[in-house]
Amino acid sequence: MDRREEFLSIFRQHVTRPGAERLLDWLDTKTDFFTCPASTRFHGACEGGLCMHSLNVYHALHDRFFTEGESEESYAICALLHDLCKANYYKVSTRNVKNDATGQWEKVPYYSVEDQFPYGHGEKSVFLIERFMRLKVEEAVAIRWHMGGFDDAARGGSFAISEAYDRYPLAIKLHIADLTATYLMEHRTSAVR
């Protein structure tokens, strides 16, 4: 099963709320979600990197933290859609780089950011999801603060992240799963040098 199929299978198996199918249709037909990178050069800077990352976050979140009685639906929504803000976000280009082994110049891919809707990171993902289906408060907070200390508001001194993590355990779990996927599961997954 390819990544797109795995993503769709997990999502459809666990997410049944109104609007979910419309959201999937939008992802599939109006965005580059299944083919775009997860970053410009760090983790998953390759074709399909965002889908790979979303699946890795799902597996890290579910495998490490899910316990009986919790919502499979909330785990799937948060993990699979936390970086929805990155759909239609990157521009693919090439540049010339000298190959050290051959001494020849080669065209290599690179990604740049072309943000058509500069609304923030986690908050943009929440906004986009809610155009199609309602999120529970716990889900919205988890997605909003999944970047942890890397979030611009947290770096700027906001204390809201501490309150979010204290009140909503799913938020801290999603952040840890995102770190696990990014730094452990996706180490050296970038096609960009």
Summarize the structure.
Helices cover 50% and strands 9% of the residues. The protein has 193 residues and is mainly alpha-helical.
Give a structural overview.
This protein is mainly alpha-helical. Helix content is 50%, strand content 9%. It has helices at residues 3-14, 20-30, 49-65, 72-81, 122-130, 137-144, 152-155, 160-167, 169-185; strands spanning 90-98, 105-113. The chain has a two-stranded antiparallel sheet with strand order 1-2. The chain is globular and about 60 Å long.
Radius of gyration: 17 Å
Distance between the termini: 29 Å
- Helix and strand string, N-terminal first? HHHHEEHHHHH
Strand order of the largest sheet: 1-2
Topology at a glance:
Elements: H1 3-14, H2 20-30, H3 49-65, H4 72-81, E1 90-98, E2 105-113, H5 122-130, H6 137-144, H7 152-155, H8 160-167, H9 169-185
Helix pairs in contact: 1-3, 1-4, 3-4, 3-9, 4-6, 6-9, 8-9
Descriptive labels:
9 helices; two-stranded antiparallel sheet; mainly alpha; 50% helix; 193 residues
